[in-house]
Design goal:
alpha+beta; 5-stranded mixed beta sheet; about 25% strand
């Protein structure tokens, strides 16, 4: 709530700050008793080791060696640093105080060496992960997505692209560090209320029939007018194919995706009942293998549902259970258990608070209601009547559309609001709600200063 998408950066800074304070406290303890300080370092190392072993991706031997080296180095370096602290004098200190300078220089040198060691270690881990992920391109799909229809993309500068570039696609993770999965030992399992549970490796998954489709996904924490939404071309295996192979038992009412780091998301099995609602175990995004940041080697993409109940990245398990038997990660934290994406629209241009010259001004943006589609988009100026906007051709009901309104702007300050109507005829509500527990509501409204 407070830090938004910077929450992990703030948490990492907080962790670093606490670690520095803890190190300072152990240093003061060491001035009285080196033995007590070494015991403290060992205790901190033990806590670190226990924390590391809770991560399914951590190599236990590597974690043990890392903690032993860190604790051992600390136990050796602390007496060396303490020996360099100048003794207090009863007389006036010499000028300059070379003893203090020598201690500060040594302390800074140790800090720099520690930081460099951490950076090198992270570099080596990333390089190892990159080598593990250097696989041949994902095979071409047997069923390709329909071409983007003529008239889908509106030629308006500043409007969100119809297909979001992978590098610009939003990310919301609970992982502080992006999991890097070695696919040589990776499998995804179908378990729970099934007749034939099984596991499948990466190459076997790629050998199954692959399909492509454009799907717009959104984060439930997206504010009205926010950017936590994007549209991409996803390639993968039909989730139905995997479930059919496993044989889902009668009574299974929830599909739970589990990540390699233990994170879970769950949605009703009934969501898959409609034949044209095609959920995927996706292995590629915008024509290339999933990058680690977006879930390599595989993730779930379920049209029409917010990501926190469906879009499991770094997929490890698909478990069939009941809605009553299991609550996924975010549900006990106060978010809704069932979360269809709300009908939403956004003004991309002009920006809120921007200036414009009097005359015709292009007001444009995107609207989405996957997988119901968008029937209409309307703009309101200064609380006046709602006026229809031009809508680009839709790729499918599962994707957003671009829209454009040619506004005859007069001098002064104006308020512009947008609303959409989905394919079922439901009009986007003006009732304002917070994102929790099931998505933000309201009309995106901006202010524009028009020059005469």
């Amino acid at each position: 709530d407070l830090f938004g998408t910077a929450d992990k950066l703030v948490l990492n800074i907080l962790v670093l700050g606490v670690a520095l304070l803890l190190g300072a406290a152990i240093g003061l303890l060491g001035r009285r008793s080196i033995t007590a300080a070494r015991i403290a370092f060992t205790a901190v190392g033990a806590v670190a080791l226990l924390a590391a072993l809770r991560d399914p991706l951590v190599d236990p031997l590597l974690a043990l060696v890392s903690v032993a080296l860190a604790s051992g180095t600390a136990a050796v370096m602390l007496p060396w640093l303490l020996a360099r602290i100048p003794e207090p004098r009863s007389t006036v200190a010499e000028m300059p105080n070379w003893g203090r300078r020598r201690f500060l220089g040594s302390a800074l040198g140790v800090a720099a060496a520690a930081a460099a060691s951490g950076a090198v270690g992270r570099l080596l881990l990333d390089r190892r992960a990159a080598q593990a992920a250097s696989l041949p391109p994902v095979p071409e799909p047997g069923a390709t997505a329909a071409p983007i229809p003529s008239g889908a993309e509106l030629n308006v500068e500043g409007i969100s692209p119809l297909v979001t570039p992978t590098a610009d696609f939003y990310r919301i993770d609970t992982a502080l560090l992006v999991p890097h999965v070695d696919v040589s030992g990776w499998t995804v399992s179908v378990t729970g209320m099934v007749d034939r549970p099984f596991s499948i490796g990466y190459q076997e998954l790629l050998a199954m029939p692959l399909v492509e489709q454009y799907v717009t996904i959104a984060c439930v924490s997206n504010e009205v007018g926010g950017g936590l939404v994007g549209n991409a071309l996803w390639r993968g295996v039909r989730l139905r194919d995997l479930l059919d192979r496993a044989g889902v038992r009668a009574g299974a009412t929830q599909v739970v995706g589990r990540s390699v780091d233990g994170w879970t998301a769950g949605f009703p099995t009934a969501w898959l009942d409609e034949a044209d609602r095609e959920a995927l175990v996706a292995v590629a995004m915008n024509g290339k293998a999933l990058p680690p940041e977006h879930g390599f080697p595989a993730r779930l993409i379920v049209p029409g549902l917010y990501g926190y109940v469906s879009a499991t990245k770094w997929l490890k398990e698909i478990n069939l259970t009941t809605l009553e038997a299991f609550d996924a990660y975010w549900v006990p934290l106060g978010w809704a258990k069932e979360a269809p994406i709300l009908t939403q629209s956004r003004i991309d241009v002009p920006r809120d608070g921007a200036g414009a010259d009097a005359g015709q001004v292009a007001v444009a943006g995107v609207a989405w209601a996957p997988d119901r589609g968008i029937r209409a988009v309307e703009l309101q100026v200064d609380g006046g009547p709602w006026q229809p906007a031009e809508i680009g051709a839709a790729i499918s009901d599962a994707t957003w559309v671009q829209w454009l309104f040619r506004w005859d702007a007069t001098p002064g300050q104006h308020r512009l609001s947008v609303r959409a109507t989905d394919g079922t005829g439901e009009v986007q509500t003006d009732r304002v709600t917070e994102p929790a527990p099931d998505g933000a509501r309201g009309h995106h409204t901006i202010t524009v200063d028009v020059r005469g």
